[in-house]
C-alpha cells in the first residue's frame, strides 16, 4: 500500500471518535488516546457523529456483568457502517480488551485493533499496521511499558485536569477485577507529578484531580507511608493552582497525616470521596476490605473534626453475595451515621473473573432491588438535609462548562463549590467564562444541587477563563494528514522542567 518515503503523508484528514466507559482512569486514558490520534494526524469527529468517523475507538470497562454484551451490541451496530465505508477502522481498548483479548476479534471479526490497558501508546501504530497488513492487530502488554502520563493528551477542559500519580492496585477485593487488568500498583516519581502539574498550571489550569486506583496508597513503591500527604502539601506550594482534589482513597491507607495535610493546605479542597462499599463487618470481610464499620466511621469523624465543612461522598454495593437483612441494616446505620453529601449506590452485579462471582448466597434480584430502593431513599433524604445547611452561605463557585442542562432556558450558569457541590446561579451582568470564579449566596437547596437566585456578589476573571477563551476562539489546528507509513510516534517530548506532580472508585 505504500511506496517511496514511508514518512510521506497524504493530503487527507481522517476523523476519529473515542467512546469511553467506566471510571475516571478510563476518562483520562481517553484524553491520552485522543492526544495520540491527533498527534498522528487525525481530527476529532463532530459531536453526535455516532460512529460516522474514520476511526472509532472503544475504551472499555470490565466491572459490570453485562459489559461485554454492551460492547458487542455497539460493535454490531457499526458493522454495516464499516461495510459501506472502505477504510473505516474500529479499535477496542481498556479493561475488557485486556480481559477478553482472544474473544473480541472472534466475535466481531470486523474489529481492526485490540489493545490493552498497558500499551495505549501503541494505538496509532497498530491502526497503521492493520491498514497496511489488512488484518486485525491484537497486542496486549502484560505489564506497564511506560507510565501513561508521558503520552500526549487532548484535555477536555481548559481549566481542570486529571493527573495520574499511580496505576494498578495491590488490594484483592473479591468484587473487583481491576488488579488483574491494571496490574500491581506502580507509582510515579513525585518530581514528575509536580512537573506535570506546573506545566498544566502554566497552560491555564487552576484545578487538578490526583488519580489512582487507591490514590492514598501512593508511596508503597518506595516504602514511604507519608508520601501522599507530602504530595498534597507540595501541591500547596504551586503558584496559580487554586483547587486540588483526589480520587479514590482507600480507608485502609487513610492516615492522620493525610487528614492534617488536607486541613492545613489551603488549595486542597474540603471534599472527600471514600468508598465504604458496605456497613456490615461480615460483608466487608467477605469483600476482603481491610477495615470495619467502626474504623470507617472513625475516619469520617476525624475528617469532620479537622474540616467541619467537608463534603464526604462514597460508593456502596447492595446485595453482595451472602448479604442478609441484618447486614443491610448495618449499611443503613452507617449511612445515617456518616451523613454523606451523596453516595453512588450500585446493585451488585457479577464481575466475571472475580471470586465474588462464584460465591454462594447470591441474593435474588428482587431482594437486591428492594434494598437498593430503600438505601436510595434514605441517602436522598440525607443529601437534601445536608444541602439545606448550605442555604445562606456565601460560596466561591468555579464556572463550569456543560454542568447545567437547563442553563439556557433558565438564564443561569453552573459551577462547582469548593466542596464540589453543584451550584446553579443567576447569570451576572458582566461576561464570565468557564474557569472564572463567581461569588454567590445560596438561597435554595435540592438533593443534588444548590441554587443562588440573587445577583452574584462578585466575579473574578481568571487565567483559566483566559485559557478557555483562547481555546474556543482559536481555529482548530490543521494536521497535514494521516501518515500512510508507520507514524513517527517514538518517545514523546519531555514535560517542561519544574521550577522547584477502576475502577478509580473501587
From TrEMBL:
Main localization, broad class: cytoplasm
Cofactor binding note: Binds 2 [4Fe-4S] clusters. One cluster is coordinated with 3 cysteines and an exchangeable S-adenosyl-L-methionine.
Residues engaged in binding [4Fe-4S] cluster 2: 169, 173, 176
Catalysed reactions listed for this entry: N(6)-dimethylallyladenosine(37) in tRNA + (sulfur carrier)-SH + AH2 + 2 S-adenosyl-L-methionine = 2-methylsulfanyl-N(6)-dimethylallyladenosine(37) in tRNA + (sulfur carrier)-H + 5'-deoxyadenosine + L-methionine + A + S-adenosyl-L-homocysteine + 2 H(+)
Residues that bind [4Fe-4S] cluster 1: 23, 61, 95
Membership in a protein family: Belongs to the methylthiotransferase family. MiaB subfamily.
The protein's name: tRNA-2-methylthio-N(6)-dimethylallyladenosine synthase
